[in-house]
Description:
Layout: E1 15-19, H1 23-34, E2 39-43, H2 49-59, H3 61-64, E3 70-73, E4 84-87, H4 103-120, E5 125-128, H5 133-144, E6 151-153, H6 156-171, E7 178-179, E8 182-183, E9 191-192, E10 198-199, E11 202-203, H7 210-221, H8 223-231, H9 238-252, E12 257-266, E13 272-283, E14 286-290, H10 297-324
Parallel strand pairs: 1-2, 1-4, 2-3, 4-5, 5-6
Antiparallel strand pairs: 7-10, 8-9, 10-11, 12-13, 13-14
Helix pairs in contact: 1-2, 1-9, 4-5, 5-10, 6-7, 6-9
Amino acid sequence: xxxxxxxxxxxxxxxxxxxxxxxxxxxxxxxxxxxxxxxxxxxxxxxxxxxxxxxxxxxxxxxxxxxxxxxxxxxxxxxxxxxxxxxxxxxxxxxxxxxxxxxxxxxxxxxxxxxxxxxxxxxxxxxxxxxxxxxxxxxxxxxxxxxxxxxxxxxxxxxxxxxxxxxxxxxxxxxxxxxxxxxxxxxxxxxxxxxxxxxxxxxxxxxxxxxxxxxxxxxxxxxxxxxxxxxxxxxxxxxxxxxxxxxxxxxxxxxxxxxxxxxxxxxxxxxxxxxxxxxxxxxxxxxxxxxxxxxxxxxxxxxxxxxxxxxxxxxxxxxxxxxxx
Length: 325
Ligand code: APR
């Protein structure tokens, strides 16, 4: 049931549910509507917040010139038949808190959210944004039994966007000309790949010296923490929302964009039974395929070290879950 029964429905429109109407979720809802991508259902556990935010967004429609409906709710029944469900519910990092500190708090919320959402949208594609991302996506997949092409995590696009920004700032060139590629976990052991990061096709290894590249790589690894340290009372949300939106657009519009996505690997890159960021083609059915890049020994061992770090957190989470059961 719509909260805006008088709004005329002109034609079938794709529907995206965003669970968690906080900073990331509400900014994402705004991006989706203003880019005219889909109708949005914004769901939160707190009464009134998603309803208020969606009414506010609806009231901007005449100015922003789009016709998307934005529904705010606390009830999963309103999310029925969504094409895509994005999970941003959980808590962001506070100063001094690592992504891993968030682990137990967010694991329960994510598992609860996907389990409820899938009952109403069994055919949807699911994108997890809540941190620690790789582990949350693994748990969500485990809880729902979704095939790996229909459940994924958003992190690599954001990490790559940060690397792209720092490269463009260092060289004084347009970020639109910079393509950056970051694989691995969404954490301190992420794997920025300078060889596959280019300015209009020219690898940055030909434009910057090794020490400068290492400095940019380090800043990318600390990209989230840098913002947390500045804001003190919250974490990044504009770029995370934009990064999620790129994935939604590629899926909804069947663009087959090649994006770094946290996905469940079954032997690719020599990794099994783990969710980690690797390049994937995103299209109508979700992950169309995983691209296996040629990595040097150093790059490959960095990716495996990243996977080991995820595995460690995952094992600890499952241990604690079992103890508490
Ligand atoms: N069901 C639905 N919503 C929930 C639940 C739940 N069980 N638990 C918490 N929420 C909601 C909160 O009420 C809040 O509105 O999730 C929202 C989280 O919003 P913020 O605190 O503003 O956090 P945000 O900055 O949006 O980050 C959300 O995305 O990038 C990641 O690290 C970030 O894990 C964090 C997540």
